[in-house]
């Protein structure tokens, strides 16, 4: 899927996807939310957080390296989104789930 293969791109978002597939942004958002029950933006963030969890559990990458891998440019924004998504900080998640 386009989203998973472009997660590391900080520009990945509704606009870039609509441009890539030559579709009206509002129509794309409507179709996506109708089919999935989620907004496209929240789906992208969910995919980024899932990728971050995999990296935290399987690598010793720094928070900045993880941000680079998942397309988030600001580490403090990553921390806020991760905690909002998982209920724990990235460090707490790594301490509990690291298998490296």
Describe the protein in words:
The protein has helices at residues 2-5, 14-20, 25-36, 40-58, 63-70, 75-86, 90-97. The protein is elongated and about 45 Å long. By secondary structure, it is mainly alpha-helical. It is 70% helix and 0% strand. The mean pLDDT is 96. α4 packs across α5, α4 packs across α6 and α4 crosses α7. The chain contains seven helices and no strands. It has one domain (2-97): Arc Repressor Mutant, subunit A (Orthogonal Bundle).
Can you tell me the CATH superfamily? Homeodomain-like
Compute the gyration radius: what is it?
14 Å
Question: How far apart are the first and last residues' alpha carbons, in Å?
Answer: 27 Å
The class by helix and strand makeup works out as mainly alpha
Q: Any guess at the CATH architecture?
A: Orthogonal Bundle
What is the H/E order? HHHHHHH
Give the tally of β-strands.
0
DSSP helix count? 7
Given the C-alpha coordinates, what overall shape results? elongated
CATH class: Mainly Alpha
The proportion of residues forming helix, as a percent range, comes to over 70%
């Amino acid at each position: 899927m386009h989203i998973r293969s472009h997660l590391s791109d900080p520009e990945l978002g509704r606009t870039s996807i609509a441009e890539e597939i030559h579709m009206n942004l509002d129509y794309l958002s409507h179709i996506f939310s109708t089919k999935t029950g989620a907004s496209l933006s929240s789906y992208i963030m969910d995919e980024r957080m899932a990728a971050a969890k995999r990296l935290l559990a399987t690598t010793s990458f720094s928070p900045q390296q993880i941000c680079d891998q998942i397309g988030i440019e600001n580490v403090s924004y990553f921390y806020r989104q991760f905690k909002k998504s998982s209920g724990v900080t990235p460090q707490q998640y790594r301490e509990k789930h690291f298998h490296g």
